[in-house]
Hints:
The longest helix has 16 residues, at 129-144.
Amino acid sequence: MRKLDKTVVLVGMMGAGKTSVGRRLASVLGMPFRDADAEIETAAGCSINEIFERYGEPAFRTGERKVIARLLTEPPHVLATGGGAFIDPETRARITENAISVWLKANVDLLLERVRRKDNRPLLRNTDSRTALMRLIGEREPVYAMADIVVESDEGPHDAVVKRIITALQNNGELSANGDS
Length: 181
Ligand code: S3P
């Protein structure tokens, strides 16, 4: 499949499947894959949990802004972002200007089931995860809805979500129907 000339940025809540779907999407599109959270950890030399603990959320957001700004100057790739990235006005403006944004939309039950598998989300620590997720969903969904493409992320296989993204990219004229954009 011919490469897109823009980076595809996956946005949405924690647990929506951005990293897993992003990896598969990148492989189908023949593009490199980058994960913003992993890049932030590499730049900081510690985990996201440690960044929040040692320096606090504002410092994490500053690092996130810088890392995503840098990644958006790299050749086209598929970029999975952390759930708060697209909510930041500066980062959102950069993504809107330089990339195609895709919101992976998922319901709270699915998000809960997925986030329960790992203890790597500081915003859900020491709190009731459902309440915290519901609050964030309420605040963030109107912003995620500004993404260029909205795709449902459900309990089915990630490949089905990848197919939906490819179809949406085709419908948006970013890729031709036979992939020969
Ligand atoms: C966050 C989501 C996390 C990570 C950080 C903050 C958020 O990424 O960036 O814990 O604000 O929603 P995932 O969405 O990949 O879990």
